[in-house]
Design brief:
Helix content: 25-40%
Number of strands: 19
Mean pLDDT: 87
Strand content: 15-25%
Structural class: alpha+beta
Distance between the termini: 36 Å
Shape: globular
Radius of gyration: 27 Å
């Protein structure tokens, strides 16, 4: 991982190269002013040179803050942060086409997925498309095989058409913040009526797909103020979406629909639906539908490969620790880098010393491969400074913890132990290595290596503890 100092020095040199005329004008103006004091052209040239020279460190500082994923005290939200529960996640995604009034809204299962094209310019610099949240250059083109579910006539909506289940394969541009809906395997689609002999036109609704996949959490407060958890209650969510579409859209406050704020007719329809599911509760759908290996896009997307992590000697000796945080909110912007979109984020940071958690707002470039797993986890690993005043997002460790890259352990006798899908075990191993000052810049912890033999016993003990805990659970 690059240090903040290294990033700053690189940006300072680049800014000095771009603004090299500043020091030159300053030197020429000062030299001429020494021969001819006064407020003539020498003073004007020197002043222009001084102004250009001052922009060098300012530009370096601003670009370093944009590039380096650090969180400082200035990023902390005042007034106690967001009033969100810890398990809340609000995702504000670019709008999709709403289709014609006759289009039916239904569920589609993703059978297979493959990345066809993602071709930004190949630069690591920031690119801004004013007013465009989904430019083709930064929006992956994905081939999807879908099974579109049948739509049944329902009492709570005015929908009267029915249709049989069918399969379709096509190519669609997918907003990067909605990629996890493909991995989860559940989409919301609009099916346009087809002419006789023509195949139906299927258009995915990406923001609603992220909601149906469970990437964005969903809650409802009824007319009597009673809360209900709706996340991954797929049938109920689809029925709510149909009501919302017929009403022209329903605004969510955070991740919550409050019926007391809706018009009476729409609120009554929502309330009737809530009463039905209160009497007959719906089970949550799985985090990911069966067959995820055929939909996995993480390996095809850019972003840091997961690893147990690099440990700086100075950071380790002075008492630096790893800290976990959780994204509470992501909001798209019109700025992108090749390896991911630049998002306005809110994180809840849980300090390692047991002090109360705090919320921080930070604009971050989020790797594309991490976004494919957003339905499964919103956790992120931070490197906490020894004084606890600043934190740095460690995307390599984050991707290993999130399961974007599969973690493995090789025992001293050569046995391979897969630990993917066990984030608490991966987290314990990361902390053990960091506390011993050992860097493992790969997703494989090979205890046969000489420098890791000293911790082989401790790693074996940690593996045993988590295996016992999993068995008891």
């Amino acid at each position: 991982m690059r240090s903040r100092t290294g990033v700053f020095i690189g940006n300072l040199l680049f800014a000095a190269l771009c603004c090299c005329t500043g020091p030159l004008f300053l030197a020429v103006g000062y030299s001429a002013w020494a021969d001819d004091p006064g407020w003539g052209w020498p003073a004007a040239v020197a002043a222009a040179g001084a102004a250009i020279t001052l922009t060098i460190p300012v530009a370096a500082i601003k670009s370093t803050r944009a590039e380096f994923p650090g969180i400082t005290r200035r990023d902390r939200l005042k007034g106690g942060g967001f009033p969100y529960p810890d398990d809340t996640f609000v995702l504000l995604a670019p709008r999709s086409g709403q289709g014609s009034p006759r289009a039916r809204l239904t569920r589609a299962d993703v059978l297979e997925a493959a990345l066809l094209r993602y071709n930004p310019d190949g630069e690591s610099t920031f690119t801004t498309h004013v007013g465009n949240y989904t430019p083709d250059e930064f929006t992956p083109l994905v081939r999807l095989s879908l099974r579109v579910r049948a739509t049944e006539e329902t009492e709570e909506t005015e929908e009267t058409d029915t249709a049989a289940e069918f399969e379709v394969t096509g190519e669609w541009r997918v907003p990067s913040v909605c990629l996890s809906a493909i991995t989860a395997g559940r989409l919301v689609v609009l099916v346009e009526p087809a002419a006789p002999g023509e195949p139906p036109v299927v258009v995915p609704d990406w923001p609603r797909s992220a909601l149906l996949a469970g990437t964005r959490t969903s809650r409802l407060i009824d007319l009597e103020g009673r809360p209900a958890e709706v996340t991954r209650r797929v049938d109920r969510q689809l029925r709510q979406m149909r009501i919302s579409r017929e009403a022209g859209g329903v605004v969510m406050t955070g991740d919550t629909i409050d019926l007391r704020r809706l018009d009476p007719y729409t609120a009554a329809r929502y309330a009737a639906l809530a009463d039905r599911y209160r009497a007959h509760p719906e089970e949550q759908a799985p985090v990911s539908e069966p067959g995820e290996e055929r939909r996995r896009l993480a390996d095809q997307m850019p972003g840091e490969e997961g690893e147990f992590g690099w440990v700086g000697r100075r950071w380790s000796r002075r008492g630096g620790v790893l800290v976990r945080a959780r994204f509470l909110e992501m909001r798209g912007t019109t700025t992108f880098q090749d390896h991911g979109p630049v998002l306005d984020t809110v994180l809840r940071v849980r300090p390692a010393d047991g002090t109360p958690s705090f919320d921080a707002a930070r604009r971050l470039t989020v790797p594309m491969n991490y976004l494919t797993a957003l339905h499964r986890t919103k956790e992120v690993v931070l490197l906490a400074a020894p004084n606890g005043r600043s934190h740095v997002v460690d995307w390599a460790r984050t991707n290993l913890l999130a399961g974007v890259t599969e973690a493995r352990v090789i025992t001293p006798d050569g046995r391979e132990l897969p630990v993917a899908g066990r984030p608490e075990l991966v987290w314990a191993l990361m902390n053990l290595l960091a506390s011993r000052g050992l860097s493992v810049t790969s997703p494989v912890l090979d205890l046969r290596k000489r420098r890791l033999r000293a911790v082989a016993g401790e790693v074996t003990r940690v593996l045993g503890e988590h295996t016992d805990a999993r068995t008891c659970a």
